[in-house]
Design a protein that fits this description.
Elements: H1 6-9, H2 12-27, H3 33-43, H4 52-59, H5 71-84, H6 97-104, H7 110-118, H8 128-171, E1 178-179, H9 180-183, E2 191-195, E3 202-211, E4 217-221, H10 222-231, E5 235-241, E6 248-253, H11 254-257, E7 272-276
Length: about 280
């Protein structure tokens, strides 16, 4: 967790503070940071406009190779701070440079826009090195988004495991649910649990999904749906909605999901389907 609010780090006072701090560090290479800050405050006429506390933190984050005398410095600051705590607006960069810049025109992003302008990242048409910077940022943001998605998926699986433990204890079944997503990626489901059966416990195969969509929905791949149909009544979907104060669980059967699934038409074949969540929440 970063020790400063994102807007404070992602600001010209912080960036300029770092630039000045590094300039003084180059002029007095034997001085430590704690000695440079009082000197800057005493000598620099613009010291009051600098956020030197935030700059000290950024000094440890931003590459020491960033040239503090060119636009490359601001570009390094921008990408570093965005990736420290990816804000929602930064995720729009994956839609493309033009779409992202268009979004920055909104008044709420005036300060953000000024930083990108300072880094000469809004020029049109862009130079090749501009394009390379945008490509690198998109790659990193996608990676960060994937990491967040994977963490949320694991959190959802853990919630399903805990719920199934409680349900099995309530039903008097002396078995523990199995985290198949960890043990066997080829199983076709994420959690193996059990229902009470006429002749003893019967398998309950759970595909776990998570979503932050509003209104809530979840995505099914063609392969996931084929697996679900193969297992039939033994198979259920756990969909955890991670919005609001706490995660909410919806449980759907194959029969309930079936009417929402697409069909192939002509030579076209569907790969992924977005399924709306309209069924009542379970306990």
């Amino acid at each position: 967790m970063i020790p400063f609010p994102f807007p404070r780090l992602f600001s010209m006072p912080a960036f300029e503070g770092l630039r000045v701090l590094r300039q003084y560090g180059a002029d007095w290479p034997d001085a430590v940071t704690s000695e440079l800050v009082p000197l800057i405050r005493q000598v620099e006429a613009t010291a009051d406009s600098l956020d030197l506390e935030a700059a000290i933190f950024l000094h440890e984050q931003v590459s020491r190779d960033a040239p503090h005398g060119s636009v490359g410095f601001y570009r390094e600051c921008i990408s570093t701070v965005i990736l420290l705590d990816v804000p929602d607006w930064a995720k729009l960069v994956t839609l493309g440079r033009g779409m992202f810049i268009k979004r920055l025109r909104d008044d709420e992003f005036r300060d953000v826009r000024s930083l990108f302008r300072q880094a000469k990242l809004l020029d049109d048409p862009p130079e090749l090195d501009d394009v390379q910077w945008w490509d690198a940022l998109q790659t990193h943001v996608r990676l960060q988004r994937d990491l967040e998605f994977n963490k949320r998926a694991r959190d959802a699986e853990l919630l399903s495991l805990e719920r199934e433990k409680a349900e099995l204890a309530k039903a008097g079944i002396d078995k523990a649910p199995v985290w198949m997503a960890i043990d066997d990626n080829t199983a076709g489901y994420d959690v193996l649990s059990y229902w009470p059966g006429e002749y003893g416990p019967r398998n309950k195969l759970i595909e776990v999904k998570s979503t932050v969509a509003n209104p809530p929905s979840f995505t099914l791949s063609r392969n996931e749906w084929e697996q679900a149909k193969k297992f039939g009544d033994a198979f259920v979907f756990h969909i955890w909605v991670f919005s609001g104060d706490k995660p909410r669980l919806y449980e759907k059967t194959v029969a309930e999901v079936g009417p929402h699934m697409p069909e192939d038409v002509g030579k076209g074949r569907w790969k992924n389907a977005i399924i709306p969540l309209k069924l009542p929440q379970v306990g």
